[in-house]
Amino acid sequence: AHYPAEFMAAVLSSDMANTDKIVLMIEDCRHINLKVVSPNVNVSEYKFSVDEKNRIVYGLGAIKGVGEGAIESLIAARTTAGEFKDLFDLCLRVDLRKVTHRVFEALIYAGALDTFGLHRAALIGNLDAAIQAATKLHKDLALGQTDIFGDAISADDLGIMLPAQAFAEFSDQMRLAGEKSTLGLYLTGHPLIQYEAELAKIITHKIINLRPSAKHEKQLIAGFITAIRTMQTKRGDRMAFLTLEDRTGRQEIAVFADLYNETREQLKKDNLIIVQGETKPDEYSGGLKMRALKIMDLATARATYAKKIILQIDATQGLADDFVAMLK
Questions:
Q1: Separation of alpha carbons 238 and 257, rounded Å
Q2: Among the residues of the chain, which ranges form H helices?
Q3: Count of CB atoms within 10 A of residue 211's CB?
Q4: What is the rounded CA–CA span in Å between residue 84 and residue 88?
Q5: Is 240 helix (H, G, I), strand (E, B) or coil?
Q6: I need a surface site. Which of 133, 211, 241, 310 has the fewest CB within 10 A?
Q7: Cβ atoms 92, 51 nearer than 8 A
Q8: Sign, Cα dihedral of 127, 111, 51, 58
Q9: What percent of the chain stands above pLDDT 70?
């Protein structure tokens, strides 16, 4: 009631390894207008925390591929000598035996190095040069040839960092895929957002609002396939279990043999599908289980459910000569 940000940060921290729960809790934060911001090497702690703007800051410990030893090295360096100025400064000050190339990549894809003012593709593009320069300086220091703390050495002095414009920025899809692989969820956006207004006219429920189906009730949900596993039935047929995700949660869906054979080309990870199905309580998990009765891609759903198409044409500046052909 009085400290919602601190409360939610604590709850998120208690389940950092459970991505499904984090997805639901971050959606709860959105519902109560609590902003959850990307991890930040200059602000984030191991656990979720609250910044001076009362926003929840993603915990470094919740980034996949970033171990506890790497985080301890990073936070110790930040505590000792203050915030990191740029990618090279970060590489120079942490223990590169613990904060490996793979750890840096995970931090970049998670958005933890956005604070340096370079887009993520530029950070990835400059990473090898920054690590190599830092490694060389550490070796020189060990040999007594350099005092890196006596004279502050910057990336500009060494001329090792290429400007951001030297690298093509990641597309929104690539940026979000990077967040999904490191955080387990989309944090700075969601690929479903661009379809939500249209899907709202088709689906009957968001995943978070699913309830056990009433008699003969068919529930329609939409989302991206985040996982798929197949198994052989006792009759020797193949069936599948999909994990479908929208912005509100995840739902496992059973696709039995006939429907699986009919739709298997659509059932690929990261595909957007619309599922008509029946739900009932799952006594094992305490949640719901869903059986798919029909599966459609967006084009099929449009053809099935669209009642009309409205075209708004602005002819105040005239129309192109080939307008009618384009309209057809």
A1: 5
A2: 4-14, 19-31, 68-81, 87-93, 101-110, 120-142, 155-158, 172-183, 196-199, 257-263, 298-305, 323-327
A3: 11
A4: 9
A5: strand
A6: 310
A7: no
A8: negative
A9: 95
- On whether the CB atoms of residues 278 and 213 are closer than 8 A, the answer is yes
286: number of Cβ within 10 Å = 7
- Contacts for 18 with CB less than 8 Å, ≥ 6 apart: none
- Which tens digits make up the pLDDT trace of 157-202? 667 788 899 999 999 889 999 998 999 888 888 889 889 999 999 9
Q: Is 100 exposed, middle or buried (0-12, 13-18, 19+ CB in 10 A)?
A: middle
**Nearest by Cα to 231 from 254, 252, 208:** 254
112 has a pLDDT exceeding 70: yes
The encoded tokens of residue 194 equal 């661009």
**Of 205, 296, 194, 277, which is closest to residue 248 (Cα–Cα)?**
205
Distance between CA atoms of 301 and 299, rounded to whole angstroms?
A: 5
Burial class (CB within 10 angstroms; exposed 0-12, middle 13-18, buried 19+) of 228: middle
Degrees, nearest 5: CA angle 285-288-290: 125
DSSP-assigned letters across all residues of 84-136: --SHHHHHHHS-TTTS-HHHHHHHHHHTTTGGGSS-HHHHHHHHHHHHHHHHH
* pLDDT confidence of residue 259: 96
Identity at 304, one-letter amino acid code: T
Q: Are strands 36-37 and 272-281 parallel, antiparallel or unpaired?
A: unpaired
pTM of the model: 0.74
Q: What is the pLDDT of residues 123-151, one digit of tens each?
A: 999 999 999 999 988 887 777 765 555 45
**23-65: per-residue pLDDT in tens?**
889 878 988 999 999 999 999 999 999 999 999 999 999 999 9
